[in-house]
Amino acid sequence: MPFGGASFDLVICHHSLEHIVEIDKTLSEIERVLKPKGRFYVAVPNGHGLCDAIYRFVFEGGGHVNRFHRSEVVRLIESRVGTRLVRWSKLYSSFAYLWRLDELLSAPPTGLSKRLLAFRRLPRGTLRVFQWLLYVGTRLSDRVFGTDLAVYGWVFYFERSEEPVEEDSAYLNVCRNCGAGAEAASLERSSRFTCRCTICDTVNPYFRPFGNTI
């Protein structure tokens, strides 16, 4: 990168490391440009989770070239960047890419893959019904059986310090359209089982928090 060493207090990689082929070189550059007390924010998908698996199938990879386990990405960053994990949180999915795919296929641009075009054979709205079922089904499984099927990935906060590692609460309710998460207590309820997104006003399934969620 065209920057001198120790130039930045904070580097942000928001859903980008899964797309970068030269991951070791990239992390080495981040280590070089971070200040001695610099911080590093990272959000990545669980490359072995349900949400990313469906995304990779539907979009034939979708540009995701790296698959991460939680412990793997933490170990990689701590060793390459010289920082230590101090805070982290789960990221819950709304499978919003299925909503956007439904919109895309209503007027498909040229150059779409055969796999994406094959979804046009489905009755309009099928993808959003499937999205709704995934949203509800994965959260019910997580609540009842303690799985992480609704978890898309994680957000990590690294520092060059010896602070103890803390897990922050995660937003359980995430908009199916815009992907924005919100505290359950702040959402406008449209019925006993639904709520409205505070950003785009989309009606979504509503879930009461459980575990370390809000």
- Report the biggest beta sheet as strand number plus sense, adding barrel if it closes: 5 strands, mixed
Helix content: 25-40%
> What's the overall average pLDDT, rounded?
95
Give the class-level CATH name of the largest domain.
Alpha Beta
Tally of strands: 10
Q: Beta-sheet strand percentage? A: 15-25%
Radius of gyration: 19 Å
Count of distinct structural domains: 2
- Return residue spans where pLDDT drops below 50 for at least 5 consecutive residues: none
**CA-CA gap between termini:** 38 Å
Q: What would a concise description of this structure say?
A:
The protein is of the alpha+beta class and 214 residues long.
What does the model show?
There is one protein chain. With 214 residues, the chain is an alpha+beta fold. It has 2 domains: 1-93 and 151-168, Vaccinia Virus protein VP39 (Rossmann fold, 3-Layer(aba) Sandwich), CATH 3.40.50; 94-149 and 170-214, no CATH class. It contains 6 helices and 10 strands; from the N terminus they run E-H-E-H-H-E-H-H-H-E-E-E-E-E-E-E. The strands form 3 sheets. A 5-stranded mixed beta sheet has the order 1-2-4-3-5. The protein has a 3-stranded antiparallel beta sheet with strand order 8-9-10. A hairpin with a 4-residue loop joins strand 8 and strand 9 (194-196). Helix 4 (96-106) runs antiparallel to helix 6 (126-145). The longest helix is centred in the middle third of the chain and has 20 residues, at 126-145. The radius of gyration is 19 Å and the shape is globular. The model has no long low-confidence stretch (mean pLDDT 95).
